[in-house]
Structure formats: C-alpha cells, structure tokens
Write a structure and sequence with these properties.
The complex is a heterodimer of chains A (about 750) and B (about 300). With about 750 residues, chain A is an alpha/beta fold. Chain A is about 30% helix and about 15% strand. Helix content of chain B is about 30%, strand content about 15%. Chain B contains nine helices and ten strands. The chains are: A alpha/beta (about 750), B alpha+beta (about 300).
C-alpha cells in the first residue's frame, strides 16, 4: 500500500493538530495527535458464547440466540429455524438484552417503612432478607385469611399454575386478570362460535386482506407482520379501515378513514351485500356452519343493514362499502384478521359483536381453516401443574362470588379469564365484600382503565405484596416487594400460539446467573405456598416440589425428551403440512359447526346475531373529539418504556391531532395541551398530523410512569388509561356484553392549551 | 438529569450481580454443528434499502446501538411522531427517517428509510482526512481508526449526508462502519440481520444493484450519487420527498477548498496558521490522488 511515509505523516499531523489546537485552544487535540498508536484495519473480533433461548418481551415468544461474553449478554439474534419469527427480531426484543442489567431493576426483597401510600409518596424502602420477606408475607396473608376470610385476599396476577395453586388452596375466588382490557372479546366470541381461539393467518397465500383496524405492522410483531408483508408483496390487495394514517395503512392499497367505533356497521353492511348478491361460498357455509338451519332468520336480520344505512353511521360512501363487500367475496382467498386491541378487541361497547360479524364474514367466504385464511392454532398440550403434582382436594371457597363480578358473566367465567375494569369501584364500595390484601404479580396498575381510582382503592388495603422486575407503579403501592427474574435468568418453555402451520415449542434457558438476589416467580410462589398452605406444595412422597422439577417433568411428559435436550436444540417441532378443513371436518364429525347464528349466545340470553349497537360514548359539546389509542412499534405497553434504547426511539406519546382542529383550538405543533375526558385529564404535547380524522385525537399507549423508581421511564409522556372510564358490573350487564370488555377506547375528550 | 446509559454501566451491574445467587443451572451452548458458518468474499458489498417495504419498526436502529455498544441518547418528539433520533450523531449511526407523503388524492401515508453511512465508492471523508484515520476497504466499508484521528472534523464538514459526527467528550468520530466485524465473519450487518420485511438486504454490490433495477421501484438512490455508494435505496416516491439531498453524480472533490476556507476563517492569526494546515492537507490529498492513480487497475 502506498501513502504518506510515517515521517511525512507525523509532520502533517503535527501541523494540522497545531492549527486546530490553536483554533480551538484545545490542548487535548494536540496531545492526541502526538500519541500515535499502531493502526487497526478491522475492529477486533469478539469471541462470544451462544445459547438458544426465547424472547420474553411479548407472548409471541420468538426463538432467539443469545450471545454472551464473560457471562454478560452482549447481543441477541433471531433463531433462523423459528417458524414464528423466521429468525428476525423486533426492536423490543433486541433491546431486551438490556433488561437484566437495568440499573433500576429490583435487586433485593424490600419492605415499606412509610405507611402512607400513593402517587409521589416515597415508600421508604428497606432491604430485607428473603426469609424475612417470605415469612412476613405468609404470616400477614394467613392472619388476614383467618380474620376476614379467604375472599378478602385478591390475586392481581398472571394466572400461572403456581399462582392458581396458591389461590385455590387459600380459597380465594379472586382471580383478577387483564383480559378485559386486551383480548376478551376475541376469546369469548371465538370460543362460543368456533370452539377455539384462532391466532394465525396464512397471509402468504391470501389475495385480499381486509383490516378492521388490524394494525400489526405498526406494532412490529414479527410473527404476524412478516407473513403479512410477504402476502402483500406477493400481490394481495390490502384494505385498511382506520380513522388514522398508520404505518400499516401506508402498506395498504386502499385506506378508509372510518368514524371510530363504527366498524360493526361496515361489517354488517358487507354481510348484507354478500347475502343479497349470493356471493358466499355455499358449499363451505352449508358444510361447516349452522347458516342453513337459521337461514331465514339470518337473512331477515341482515336485510336491515344496507350499505346506505351503514354509510350514515360510518361516514363511508355506500358504494365503497358495496364494492369492498364484493371484492372480499370474489377476490379469493380473502381474510379479515383480528389481533388483540383492534376495534374487535375490547375497545368499544360493540366490539364483541364486531368479532362475531367478522367471524360470519370469514365463514361466508370460506376463510376459516383454509388456504390463505384464518388458521387454527397447532400447539402442544403440556401437563398442568395439577397433573404433574396433583394437589389434595381444594377447599370450597366460603364465598364463591368474586370481587369483579366475573361470575355474573357466565360465558366469561367459562373461559376462566378475568376483568380489570370493575375492581377499583368494588374495592372502594366494599361490594360485594371488603378486600384486605392483594398479591400483585406481572401486572402494572397503569394498565387498568382509570388507574388513579385503583390507586385510591389499593390505599384501603391492609397488605400488598408485589412480585416484579422493575420498580413499577404496582411496586410503589406494595408493603413487601419480591424481585423476580427476567426471562434471561430462568428456565421454561413456550408452546407459542401465533402459529398455524405445525407445533413448535421454544425453550427458555437461564442464559445468565440470576442477578443480585432475584428469584424466579415460580420459586417465589412455591416458597409462599410452603409457608401458607404447605400440603398443596408437596409431591406424593411428602417433600416439597420446585418450579424446576415441574418444568422438567412437564417437558418430559409432553415431548418425551429431557429439558437439557430441549435446551440444546432450542426448538422442538413436529413438522406437518397444512391441510385445509382438517379441523372443521373433525368438528363436523362431532356434530359441531361454526355458529354463524350464535346458539350458545341465545341460550345465555345474548344476541345470537351481532345486531347493530352503537359505541358507548359519543362526542358531546363538552367532549367533542373521539379518543383513539394505538401502540408505537418499539414499545410493549409500559413494560418497555423504561428501556433507554426504546425510549430513545420513541420517547413520549403526544396528542396526535389534525392541523385544522388544532388551529380552531389555537394549538400549535409541539405545544403542551391537556387532553380531558369525563374521568380525568393528562398533559402531553400536541403533534399536528394531517393523516388523522378531524374529529379524533390519537394517543400511544405505555407512557406516563409516575414511579420515581423507574429512572428512565419516569415522566415520559402520559397514560391514556387516565382518560378511560372504569366500569361497574351493572353497566356491563346493562350492555348485554357476555365478554365484559373494558371499552378501552370508547371515550370522547376535549383538548385545550396547557 | 437522567444519567446516560453506557455499556460500561451494564458491565458494572453485571459484575456486581454475578455470583450472588446460587441455584443456577448452567445453560447449554449451541453445538458447533448448529453454528452457521457463512462464506465471505472480498467483492464490494452493499445494502439494498427498499423504502416501500419498510414498516418503521426500528429494529435496524436498535440493533445497531446494541451491537456497536453505543449509548442511547435522550430524545423528545420533534419533527414528526416517529423519527427519533432525528439525525446522525457520534452515537447514532443508523436511524429510520420517517416522511409523510401525500398522493394526488390527498391521502397521507408514511414512507420510511433506514439510513446510515453511505459508504461511498470514492468517499469524500476519506479524501479529506489528513491522517488516514478514515479508510475505504475494498469490501465497501469506510472504517475509522480513533488512534489516528486528530479531531480536525474535515470529514464532518465534507460529507454531503452529514454522517460523521465528532464526539466532543471522547474526541472521536462516530459513524457506521458497515459492521465490518460481522461482515468478515460471514455475517450480515446487525441492521440487516433483523429486518423482518426484507426492506434491508445485504449482498455483493453488483447483485444488489441488479435487485434494485428489478424491484419495480421507480426511483433509485445511491447507484450514482457522489460517484456511487454502497447504500442502494429504492422507492415509489421521489427521494426529494423523503428528505434526501440532491448530490452530484461525480465523486465530490471540489468541496475541499470551500470547506477549508470556511473552517479557517477566524481572525488573521488563525488564518495564517490555517494556511499552513490547508497547504499541508492539499499536498496530502494531491499525493493520495497520485498514489491512487498509480494503483488503479490493481
């Protein structure tokens, strides 16, 4: 290689350095210029160890390969053999390698010394030993159970086998889970119309993808998005119905800017057109659905929902609705996907009916269990904790009614999921009884509708124990805090459900030693169980079981291989080709059909057909704007908004508002504003955006941490949940919603300068 | 003020935490057979960036930070809802640039471009670097040697895309090095490795150019700009609408004179001193051009 000689180079360098140093008055530069070291052409290669494990950021649970150096996770990549992710990861998963090293994570068990609780109250944490933490918790819970009865203890906890074992053994009916804010409408309606929860879509073979707010590319969930993009770029026509321009609508061939919460009217008019014009798949419908048995009733029901009628409600021209209905029924394979908090999720009062209407539409075109359509999940059944280590008979709870009123919703009770929206009211009103203690695991109180009311409710409790990784808001309300492990530090497996091709199980390995004194939640619940209800945490031989033993035994029983073998492979799979109608055929043999006409709904006193029902809250003179809520692609709710890498990429949420609307309100871009609903107000910056409807305000979810423990997340943005009303069980019953949805976007707001 | 996060803090935390907890089962590493070994050739490499397929998930941006151990910066919502960080810095080598575009019907949509150092075929930054701290490798990467850097910032001024940035604290230039450490191990760059939609593809430049021409996209950027770059963008909307600068198709060499003038115009004394520097650099550049001319065809 030619170039300047070293002598010339030095001369040159000194000259340049001198001139620069003089210019800037910076001696360091001069000194640096004189300190020559041998040049490197390539950065040094790093030697890393690699491990198969699973990403625990969201429930997609993508198979990943962790790279470690001296026992520290340095990088993470997708496992190329993973069907779900195709070896790719999203930003959340990549930044997840930061989590175990978060300087603000919970490190030791702690107890509260300040009896006062609430927002901006310093709990006065004191570090304690595991023995003290577990013993105090056990003693306190035992005492409350003896004094007030087991129903006075509530479990605001992800219902794992250990959590459920402890709850049932104590005799508490209070299983409180987040599903009414997330997915309950899908689970209940699919369960009682199709018989199973469907999660996967065969997008690569679809020709027409119609999305009622389905927005996965904007959320970057790899499992769903990459196949959608594949289908879209193989030529599928994509139609997106959404009041706002999203990253997803930017991938659409056609974008329809609907009035929020009126998607049901659009779907009903599509059913009307498809039935009237005879565009449905007659063979499929007769063979696999109960359409024929109820045809006249269905036809007369559908006849009222003309495109002209729907046009009045949705703000979409009747001709557009008619054309979309025809395209959907004729450009096949076609499919309407749904996932979590889209309009069919528990976002609006009519969301459960929208799920039913979408099931009807997918059935009419033969999309369910078909090529290019909506697929049944093909998982593996792992034996439950109760199967592996059978418990003695559980005690009959003295009071069966739960604090949230779940038992008043029989279909919800059957799917064994819980609700959040009624908890605060019922604790405050002591209805149907008084709550004295709470075990909070995995859930943050910021995920509740109107969480400030929940803070008031939790203040009334005598004792709260929180099991968490980061010092979340749930931690700030606790009396005892138990530090949980991250997914990098524990054993486990994931059956994974966003997959319709063949079963594939992914392993969780403890890639690094648990940091500090953190323990896995399984270990924590077993230790609490030993101390509170010991006979329920024993093996047949009378010794206590461990969470590790359960994981090993269940892997052995379900897959016939050892945990170590699963760990060495990373993934266990049973490849098989997708054959359409397999599941429907087996259902038909058992005399079961897709309930286009909801016989089960009718039996329980609910609407058998998704008749039109408006959204709950409509714009008023006081609150003239619709609130719409979305999620940024780099965050998973509030769980990642303390991660500096992800905060850098999306640091705060803003009130997205149309420039004309803003102008009328005298609001400029990036100015601070209040967004106010009938239950609360939040302060955020306004972001003017022409892509949103003029009657809407959009907020991204996951922000507004008020826990000062979260050193990065604290104070970024505001929580949209503060605007969302909580509910009473009577409101839900009056709406005749079998799913108990929390109506997480069914609210109107006003915006004004702060 | 929130303390800035550094990888060193992670390490510190890791070391403090390790060894305190018993009950740990050793994890099992990948067997040698499971590790994929990729082949690697010395042909010039490139990245295809298909603006049409990008969904703005920012996996590339975050993967770049994590792989290269770059600290996260404090940001706030600014130009649009999504673009953050809003430009390159010594610690941000790759980011996703969001643009709102409007079609004839007035419909708004987003277009996203994952941007990083263009790794020009004839990089201006390299030609103005007086100490050869910046260097163009035959495989494409423009790499940087902090030990040779004197902090003159000529490269900062010279780059038409404003890529190199000087870190005033550490006195180093920060910019994308095309994951040269990964490429030479037969891996694709960290940003490309996690692109779930195929909007980013890595390969030999000639193959990438062919893909760009066959992509059906109307607009291509990077094939000829500044004499050609290693980043080949394709789009369905003109690049001006995505905020890309119009850059001449010839390699940029005329910049140098203007540049040095603008840097050195502070007072008479500095002017004289800067002349020394200016001629020094000019000599160097001239000599380099000679060397280059003589080594052509090798």
């Amino acid at each position: 290689m030619g170039g300047t000689s070293r002598r010339e180079f030095l001369k040159m360098a000194v000259a340049s350095a001198a001139f620069l140093g003089l210019c800037s008055g910076n001696e360091d530069i001069i000194l640096n210029a004189l300190k020559f070291q041998p040049s490197i052409e390539w950065p040094k290669p790093t030697i890393m160890e690699k491990f198969y494990t699973t990403c625990g950021v969201c429930h997609s649970n993508c198979g990943i390969i962790a790279h470690t150096e001296d026992g520290v996770i340095k990088f993470v990549e997708g496992n190329p053999k993973d069907l779900h992710s195709g070896g790719k990861m999203c930003a959340k998963g990549i930044a997840g390698s930061y989590l175990p090293y978060a300087p603000d994570r919970l490190k030791y068990p702690m107890k509260r010394t300040n009896p006062e609780k609430g927002i901006e109250v310093d709990p006065g944490w004191v570090t304690i030993s595991w023995d003290e933490a577990l013993n105090t918790t056990a003693e306190k819970l035992k005492e409350i159970k003896e004094t007030y009865g087991p129903q006075s203890i509530i479990f605001i906890a992800s219902p794992t086998g250990y959590v459920e074992r402890l709850r049932k053994a104590i005799g508490s009916p209070n299983k409180i889970t987040h599903h009414d804010t997330c997915i309950i409408t899908h689970v209940v309606v699919e369960k009682f119309t199709i018989g199973a929860k469907l999660w996967a879509y065969d997008f690569p073979n679809s020709k027409y993808i119609l999305c009622f707010g389905w927005d996965q590319p904007s959320k970057a969930k790899v499992t769903l998005t990459r196949r959608f993009i594949e289908g879209r770029w193989k030529g599928a026509k994509v139609v997106v119905i959404n009041p706002n321009t999203t990253l997803m609508s930017s991938q659409a061939d056609e974008w329809i800017q609907i009035v929020p919460g009126t998607d049901l009217a659009f779907a009903l008019a599509m059913i009307n057109v498809i039935l009237n014009e005879g565009l449905y798949d007659k063979d499929y419908v007769e063979k696999y659905t109960n359409f024929k048995e109820h045809e006249s009733e269905i036809r007369s029901w559908a006849s009222q929902y003309t495109p002209e009628w729907a046009s009045e409600i949705t703000g979409v021209p009747a001709e557009t609705i008619r054309r979309i209905a025809r395209e959907f029924a004729t450009i096949k394979p076609s499919v309407i996907p749904i996932h979590k908090r889209d309009p069919p999720g528990p976002s609006y009062a009519n969301s459960w009916k929208l799920v039913h209407a979408i099931i009807i539409l997918n059935a009419l075109v033969g999309a369910i269990d078909n090529v290019g359509g909506w697929l049944f999940t093909k998982g593996v059944t792992f034996p439950s904790l109760d199967k592996v280590f059978p418990p003695p008979p559980y005690p009959e709870p003295p009071i069966k009614e739960d604090i949230c009123g779940r038992v008043k919703l029989p279909l919800l009770d059957k799917v064994k999921l819980g609700i959040f929206s009624t908890l605060a009211n019922n604790i405050l009103n002591k209805k149907p009884y008084e709550v004295k203690a709470a075990i909070i695991y995995h859930y943050n109180i910021l995920s509740f509708p109107n969480p400030k009311k929940l803070v008031e409710a939790l203040k009334k409790l005598e004792f709260i124990v929180t099991i968490d990784i980061l010092p979340s808001e749930s931690v700030q309300m606790a009396d005892i805090v138990l530090p949980d492990c991250t997914y990098w530090e524990r054993k486990g497996y994931s059956v994974r459900i966003y997959n319709g091709w063949y079963p594939q199980v992914s392993v969780f390995q403890p890639v690094i030693n648990p940091m500090y004194e953190c323990k896995s939640a399984g270990w924590i619940f077993c230790e609490l169980g030993k101390r509170i209800v010991p006979e329920y945490f024993k093996k047949p031989d009378g010794t206590f079981f461990s969470s590790s033993e359960y994981i090993e035994a269940s892997v052995k029983q379900a897959l016939g291989i050892s945990f170590e073998e699963l760990a060495s492979k990373g993934l266990w799979d049973k490849p098989g080709e997708f054959k359409p109608f397999t599941k429907l055929e087996s259902m038909a043999k058992a005399g079961k059909k897709i309930q286009v006409y909801g016989e089960t709904f009718k039996k329980y006193g609910y609407d058998p057909l998704p008749s039109w029902q408006p959204r709950r809250d409509k714009p008023t003179a006081e609150y003239p704007l619709y609130l719409i809520v979305t999620r940024p692609p780099v965050h998973r709710h509030g769980k990642t908004t303390d991660n500096p890498y992800l905060l850098e990429a999306y640091p705060e949420n803003a009130a997205i508002i149309h420039p004309e609307t803003a102008k009328a309100l005298g609001i400029n871009d990036l100015e601070w504003v209040w967004v106010e609903s009938r239950v609360g107000r939040i302060k955020v910056k306004a972001k003017l955006f022409e892509g949103i409807r003029k009657d809407c305000v959009c907020l991204s979810h996951g922000f507004g941490h008020w826990s000062r423990g979260l050193i990065y997340g604290y104070g970024h943005g505001a929580n949209d949940g503060d605007l969302v009303p909580d509910q009473t069980i009577d409101e839900i019953l009056a709406r005749k919603d079998p799913t108990g949805g929390a109506c997480m976007s069914d609210v109107c707001v006003k915006v004004y300068k702060a | 003020m929130v303390e800035k996060l550094s990888r060193r803090n992670f390490l510190k935390a890791a070391v403090t935490g390790a060894g305190l907890t018993a009950l740990f089962t050793s994890p099992i590493t990948l067997s040698k057979a499971e590790e994929t070994v990729n082949s690697y050739n010395k042909k010039p490499k490139a990245i295809l960036i298909d603006v049409r397929k990008c969904i703005g998930c920012k996996a590339c941006q975050v993967a770049c930070k994590v792989w290269n151990k770059l600290p996260a910066e404090e940001t706030a919502i600014t130009e649009d809802e999504y673009t953050n960080p809003t430009g390159f810095s010594a610690n941000t080598w790759c980011y996703v640039k969001f643009s709102e575009v409007k079609d004839e019907a007035g419909n708004i949509s987003w277009r996203m471009a994952s941007v990083r150092c263009m790794h020009c075929l004839e990089p201006t930054c390299v030609s103005v670097c007086p100490t050869k701290a910046l260097k163009k490798l035959p495989e494409g990467p423009v790499i940087y040697d902090p030990n040779r850097c004197i902090g003159c910032k000529y490269c900062v001024e010279a780059c038409p895309w404003h890529v190199p940035h000087f870190d005033e604290e550490r006195k180093v230039i920060g910019k994308c090095i095309f994951c040269v450490d990964r490429i030479k191990e037969g891996m694709v760059p960290a940003c490309v490795a996690n692109c779930q939609t195929g909007a980013l593809q890595f390969g030999d430049r000639d193959e990438i150019l062919e893909k760009a021409h066959n992509s059906g996209a109307q607009y291509i950027y990077g094939e000829k700009e500044a004499g050609g770059t290693s980043m080949i963008f394709v789009s369905d909307v003109p690049f001006e609408k995505l905020g890309f600068p119009k850059v001449p198709h010839e390699p940029i060499s005329t910049y140098k004179t203007d540049l040095l003038k603008s840097i050195s115009g502070i007072g008479v004394a500095t002017f004289i001193i800067s002349l020394v520097g200016y001629f020094g650099v000019k000599m160097l550049v001239k000599r380099k051009a000679q060397v280059k001319a003589s080594s052509k065809g090798v």
